[in-house]
Each structure stands twice: as C-alpha cells, then as structure tokens.
Design a protein that fits this description.
about 40% helix, four-stranded mixed β-sheet, alpha/beta, 5 helices, 2 domains, single chain, about 190 residues
C-alpha cells in the first residue's frame, strides 16, 4: 500500500476480472475549516494528483476526496484543471473532486438506485411467478396505509426525526418516483 500512496492512491477497487483498477481514491484531510483552506492544502492536493499522473496507473475513475468543503472557486478551478489533465491524458476515464458532502450525496443516490432496482426486480420476479402458477386469488392491493417521516442524520447518529405522516397509497410508487428524500417506510399500524 505504501507504493500506492506514493502514486497518489489511498483506496482502490479492481474490476470484476481483477485485471484493472476501476476506482482510485486519494483521501486528503486537514485540521482547518473550509474558509481556512489555502495554498498549502491546494499544493498538497495538486502534489497527489501529480503523483498519480506520473504513476503509470490507469483507472476508470480517479477521485480526490477532501475532508473539508471549501468555497474558493479559484482553488477549485486549479484542482479541476489538474484532474481534467488526468482525463485528457487517458489515465482516468473521469476525475472527481469531492468533499464529504459530495461523497455522502453520491452514496445516498447510489443506495437509493440500488434499492429501487431491487424493489423493481423483486416485484417483477414475484409477478412472473404468480402468473406462472396462477396464484392471483385476488387482485393485488394498489393502495395501503403507511407512514412517512424524515430523518436528519450526521455521520455518527440520528439527529432528528420528524413526526410521522400517515398516508394511503402505493408506498413503492413514492419510493420509486420520489426525490429520494423519503426512502424508508413502515406499516401504519403499530
């Protein structure tokens, strides 16, 4: 792993065939607030990108993950240009600059998409099985009672839960068609 760190990589994933690196992540953390991010931090980030650029590694995705969101657009543009260089050189299919917020958002969106996929796949499989065995003794219920609440979390704990809102309808449709903010359902009866 020390060789990888020198190449600007802290974490990586291999393709299914194990013959190529699919994702390389360089994690950079500093004990400064976002508005305190300055030239020193940016130079260290640029150094990591340059280390990867000279490593000879090629990846589908390279991600520079920083532990602080920082608003300075000139610094972001400088980092963005270095990351774009990885794409233009062919070393990375895409290159990302993420802070913690962007990481959590991407994780949420990916998790939501996976849940939606599983729900759709499972529903289609159950419907196909029911049709095959003529298991439809009655029409499926299209509307049921359910509750929705919103959770506010930080990385370590539940911060707040809104009051539950009772609804009557298709909770699957809300999950599949919604904006992803509501992704957990429970029975309306307790």
């Amino acid at each position: 792993m020390r060789q990888l760190d020198k190449a600007g990589v802290d974490l990586l994933t291999w393709t299914a065939s194990l013959n190529a690196v699919d994702l390389a992540i360089q994690c950079k953390g500093f004990e400064v607030l976002g508005h305190e991010v300055g030239t020193s931090q940016v130079n260290q980030w640029l150094g990591s990108i340059q280390a990867f650029a000279t490593s000879g590694l090629t990846v589908a995705t390279y991600c520079l993950l920083v532990n602080r969101p920082f608003p300075d657009s000139a610094m972001r543009a400088q980092l963005r240009a270095a990351l774009d260089g990885l794409v233009h050189s062919g070393q990375a299919g895409r290159a990302l600059l993420w802070d913690v917020h962007e990481l959590v958002t991407a994780a949420h969106d990916t998790m939501l998409e996976r849940v939606r996929h599983v729900l759709l796949t499972d529903n289609e499989a159950r419907a196909a099985e029911a049709r095959q065995h003529d298991l439809f003794l009655c029409d499926p219920l299209e509307a049921v009672p359910y509750e929705v609440s919103e959770l506010l979390i930080d990385p370590n704990r539940l911060v707040e839960e809104s009051a539950s809102e009772r609804r009557h309808g298709d909770p699957g449709a809300e999950l599949l068609d919604g904006d992803g903010a509501r992704c957990a359902f429970s029975s309306a009866s307790r």
